[in-house]
Design goal:
Layout: H1 67-72, E1 77-78, H2 79-82, H3 91-94, E2 98-102, H4 104-112, E3 118-123, H5 131-145, E4 149-154, H6 156-163, H7 167-183, E5 192-195, H8 200-210, H9 215-222, H10 230-244, E6 254-258, H11 263-276, E7 279-284, H12 292-311, H13 318-328, H14 333-345, E8 353-358, H15 363-372, E9 377-379, E10 383-386, H16 391-404, E11 414-418, H17 444-452, H18 462-468, H19 476-485, H20 490-501, H21 507-531, H22 533-538
Parallel strand pairs: 3-4, 3-6, 4-5, 6-11
Antiparallel strand pairs: 1-2, 2-11, 7-8, 8-10, 9-10
Helix pairs in contact: 6-10, 7-21, 8-10, 10-11, 12-13, 12-14, 13-14, 15-16, 17-21, 19-21
This protein binds tryptophan and iron/sulfur cluster.
Family: Belongs to the class-I aminoacyl-tRNA synthetase family.
Main location: cytoplasm
Subcellular location: Cytoplasm
Length: about 550
């Protein structure tokens, strides 16, 4: 989410957590650990100080120099690609404000098929809720209206440990976030609200998840150091528990709408969800283990040789695949290693299969899985190969057996990423620069004035503007229309855009209109906040922290 980025760090952690990530797919399996392969740059590292460097640091500076990098370097997927599968998409989706996702297809599928799904996000109560937070509020509410179980949590442990806020400050801000969320339409009777510190189940789950992660990993992912407080680390496992919380009763696709700075958390949560599982499910081609790159080569060799084999005994042998790869594929590490594994396997048939790996299963659960696998199977000490199952069916089976034997059976959580809003004064939107953002609590007149004073994408003179058109794509005022003021009215948003770039719209009038709309929005929102006060009092969430210590 859009958030304050320049408060001093309360915990003396390293100042940068740049990531150089290999591209990775979304499948979690034994080789594709999502948070593996990341390098933290030691203190003073220069990797993050380059102008065009994109870093994803949940507690650092949240500027994204280039959104495309998030796809290429971090493996976030483009939202556009799933958009057609989303029923009745929200305007933030239609307008590309929500630009990226991980594994959202699962959630869209559940929506379409009327199956259970959930949406959850969390808010650090470090200041007033502002129009950047509204994006996330709207996303949660939209998923709730689409039939999902909706969750919003107050990340008070994180605010206290990572930002050093006192419990009193936290209580005050928490209330403000919740009132705005309810005013915008969150239904607290259908949905769930909680604060991290007040929820025993979250704490218990955090503890369990913590046993699957160690310090080196947090060091790599977040740049934690020996100076990082233990409470800050605890807030990380708490967030992992938040993310998986909607699945405690029953595993289900769960979407976490957040700003891209939270992606490291999402990746770790996806990893931990898989690590907690009793079984890992992967594809395999022969008895030996292979990593993702090797599997691709095996698949290619199998595809190439299968037709030929049809004409003889129908069997593709490992040694033939080795010959084929040695001849047809440019040598690299993966090819070298897979060829040598194939040679060693010799006459063993190369056959696609799904493999169940025993991760945390009890003996009983492993036995039950063996019985449950239908069709041809081969059982080994720590894995089972099944020849007549699709990967999806295998995953479902593994989850069912896990659930029957006391496991969580988590589905890897999905995520949605929205663009950060540009600050009204240009640059980034920051809670500590009041003129750069509009708080949902701003006096409507102040909101009006801030919009009137905003930077625009306009030309130096009206004449030039008429001639060349404005630069709506670089205009914070246009963003206000697209992200908020135009609401669901795509035509209106498009009209503003077209008139601007066509030179028919001049900034003075355009800002006047936007300022007026902002004033109305704030007045209305604040009125609604008052109306929902009772609703909040009745809601099942502790508003006053019993904690005394600052
Ligand atoms: N870390 C988030 C932030 O900085 C807050 C948060 C806590 C959160 N738990 C979460 C966000 C779970 C999404 C899901 O604002
Ligand atoms: Fe921005 Fe409006 Fe000016 Fe276009 S006309 S640059 S949208 S303020």
């Amino acid at each position: 989410m859009t958030r304050d980025t320049d408060r001093d760090r309360a915990d003396g952690r390293k100042s940068t957590a740049p990531e150089t990530l290999p591209d990775e797919g979304t499948e979690s399996d034994e080789s594709g650990s999502e948070s593996a392969g990341r390098r933290a740059v030691p203190d003073g590292g220069t990797a993050a100080s380059g102008e065009d460097e994109t870093t994803l640091d949940p507690w650092g500076s949240a500027t994204i120099a280039d959104y495309r990098k998030l796809f290429e370097e971090f493996g976030i997927e483009e939202f556009e690609e799933v958009l057609p599968e989303v029923p009745d998409p929200h305007y933030l989706m239609r307008r590309g404000v929500i630009f990226g996702h991980r594994d959202y297809r699962r959630v869209a599928d559940a929506m379409v098929n009327d199956e259970p799904f959930a949406a959850l996000s969390g808010f650090m109560p470090t200041g007033d809720p502002h129009i950047g937070h509204k994006l996330v509020f709207d996303e949660i509410i939209w998923h709730q209206r689409q039939g999902g179980d909706a969750y919003a949590l107050i990340a008070d442990l994180e605010a206290h440990s990572a930002r050093g806020l006192s419990w009193d400050e936290i209580d005050e801000h928490a209330r403000d976030y919740l009132l705005s969320l309810l005013a915008l339409g969150f239904d607290p009777e259908e949905g769930t609200l909680y604060r991290q510190s007040g929820d025993r189940e979250v704490q218990d789950l955090a503890f369990e998840l913590g046993s699957e992660a160690n310090f080196s990993e947090l060091e790599n992912i977040y740049g934690f150091s020996g100076e990082t407080s233990v409470s800050h680390m605890q807030s990380v496992v708490t967030q992992m528990a938040d993310i998986l919380y909607p699945q405690l009763d029953e595993p289900k696709p769960t979407v976490i709408p957040v700003g891209p700075d939270q992606d490291p958390h999402v990746r770790l949560a996806r990893d931990l969800a898989a690590r907690m599982g009793y079984f890992g499910v992967t594809k395999a081609y022969a008895s030996f283990e292979a990593d993702e790159a090797e599997r691709e080569l095996l698949a290619a060799a199998h595809a190439a040789l299968a037709d030929e084999a049809e004409e003889s005994d129908g069997v593709v042998r490992c040694e033939d695949a080795a010959d084929w790869l040695a001849e047809e594929v440019t040598p690299d590490d993966a090819r070298e290693s897979v060829v040598s594994k194939l040679r060693e396997a010799g006459k063993e048939p190369l056959r696609p299969r799904v493999r169940f790996l025993d991760r945390n299963a009890t003996e009983e659960a492993f036995g039950a899985l063996i019985d449950a696998v239908e069709g041809e199977k081969r059982v080994f000490d720590e894995h089972i190969d099944a020849f007549d199952l699709s990967r999806d069916a295998a995953e479902e089976l593994a989850r069912d057996v896990e659930l029957d034997h006391g496991g969580y059976g988590f589905v890897a959580p999905s995520s949605l990423y929205h663009r950060f809003m540009t600050g009204l004064t240009g640059g980034k939107m920051s809670s500590s620069v009041p003129a750069s953002h509009i708080s949902l609590l701003d006096d409507p007149e102040d909101g009006y004035d801030k919009v009137k004073a905003a930077t625009t994408g306009g030309r130096e003179t009206a004449e030039k503007q008429r001639e060349l058109g404005g630069r709506a794509d670089e205009c914070p005022v246009y963003e206000l229309y697209a992200y908020l003021l135009a609401g669901d009215d795509d035509e209106f948003a498009k009209e503003v855009y077209d008139e601007c770039v066509g030179g028919e719209r001049l900034c003075g009038d355009c800002k006047e209109q936007a300022a007026q709309l902002m004033k109305e929005f704030l007045a209305e929102h604040q009125e609604k906040r008052e109306e929902v006060e009772d609703l909040l009092e009745e809601a099942d969430i502790e508003l006053d922290s019993p904690r005394k210590r600052d």
